[in-house]
TrEMBL record:
It comes from the Bacteria. Its cofactor is Mg(2+). The lineage of its organism: Bacteria, Bacillati, Actinomycetota, Actinomycetes, Kitasatosporales. Keywords: Hydrolase. Residues 1-11 have a biased composition (Polar residues). The keyword Hydrolase applies. Gene3D superfamilies: Nucleoside Triphosphate Pyrophosphohydrolase. InterPro entries: NUDIX_hydrolase-like_dom_sf, NUDIX_hydrolase_CS, NUDIX_hydrolase_dom. Residues 38-166, 194-329, 376-511 form the Nudix hydrolase domain. This is NUDIX domain-containing protein. PANTHER family: GDP-MANNOSE MANNOSYL HYDROLASE (PTHR43046), MUTT_NUDIX FAMILY PROTEIN (PTHR43046:SF14). SUPFAM superfamilies: Nudix (SSF55811).
Amino acid sequence: MTSSDAVSSLGTVPESGSGCASEPVDADLAAYLRQHPAPVIAVDALVRDEEGRMLVVEPTYKDGWDIVGGLVEDEELLVALGREAKEEIGLDLRMGRLLAVDNVPKEVFGRSLVAFIYAARTAHPVPARDLVLQHDEIRAAEFVPDEVALTRFPEGLRRRVAAAIEAERGAHTAHLRDGRPVPAGRRDHYALLPSPMVAAAALVTDGQGRVLVLEHSYDHGDGNRFWLPGGMVAADESAAQGAAREIGEEVGLGDVPVGRLLAVDSTPAEVHGRALASYVFAVGPLTDDQVAGIRCGDGEVVATHWLSPDEAAQRLSPRGRQRLSAALQALASGGIAHLDHAVPCAGSPVGVGPARRAELEAAGAVGAAEHLAMRPKAVVGTVVLFTDTAGRVLLVEPAYRTDGRWILPGGGVDSDAGESPRGAARREVREELGLDRAPGALLATDWVRRHPCSPEVSHVYDGGVLTESDLAAVRLPAHELSAWRLSAPDELDAWLPARMASRVRAALAAREAGSGTVELEDGRPVPQ
């Protein structure tokens, strides 16, 4: 009987600990398996104490030190490991995951050996002096740092344990031949590489600026049950895909797109036993229908809460509160927060306040790139003031605004493409009105505070007077502008946002007086 035939004929395998199978095992097959030649099986434990040190033992029957474990009898691996730990050192172990499998060829010991190493911890803190040693087998036992332990092992065991330590730091199980990695293809090689855990969360907002906070049926290891929608990212998905899957599973938002990245937080391995990279993405603002469709999709979420940013912060753990604050700042400013254990790093474009920035710069702790990244940013915009022969102001109605307010023709400056405010003014007029006209004099600059968003610097250029033929040639981009109109100066407050109306009146006054550019803050002239 071939090995594949034997496996295929086994039928239903008994459940662990059940003592019986769901259907009888073939007697002939059982007899065959008892006589079938098999390698020796060994199982060992990489035991850590509360300080992370490794437990090593000194056997009486061979040279060098070893780790806890031994040969498997007619029993399950973990049963054998528990028995060996109890017999050798009197310990009850909490078994963890499989770290390494080592196939040792028969040329080494005269018979093939398959050695397994599991992660394990003591059920409670036990000093080495309190271990109960089986003195006919174990001469001594100690908890020592990894680098000390590795110097005490024979060469083959040293390679095997070193591979187990590496696997312990990652997410893989080491596959070895005589302590050396078995060659793997490129995809398997990547799958075996040590890596941090990755989590993805979504900062979900609604039209009122509220934040969606979930209440879970469990705490997150810090006694707190509240956090943003999200969870761990699977090995076959990106962080954004993981966030999308999680909000679909947790609250039924499977059809809502995940937006831009707001924050990245690196948590050191000391916190969870393995490094964690956490991503926070923007989702929303949700429509009223999407908000109404939210439901608790799995058993992990017991309630959903729409909270103001301040209320949301109060519900979260201290680390969650810091991460939320950084993500909200990034959402408002258009930047991204780079965090280390929820604290903004030197060089983070978001989250490093003026006092901390000054402290870092005074200490010479940041380079030119970090200095530039931390500096506050401002949005640069440009508009063009056109009037007709009757002195009325040309206004346009944005298709994207919902407040019914109109604006002047204009838009943002593509400074990253080398565009100047004047160049942007000409481009915007061409795109929005279909008129190719060089802008005239700069009438006003306006510094607009928009906290918590980045401030805006708006340049107001003189577009001149439009004739009837000019107005007849106006062509609007339907996807951006719905209509245009002419408004008398005394009617501007009825059509424009308050600060823009004040800005336009100041620009009109500067044009009429020929006094040059006027400096404004929030639409009002700055006293000289």
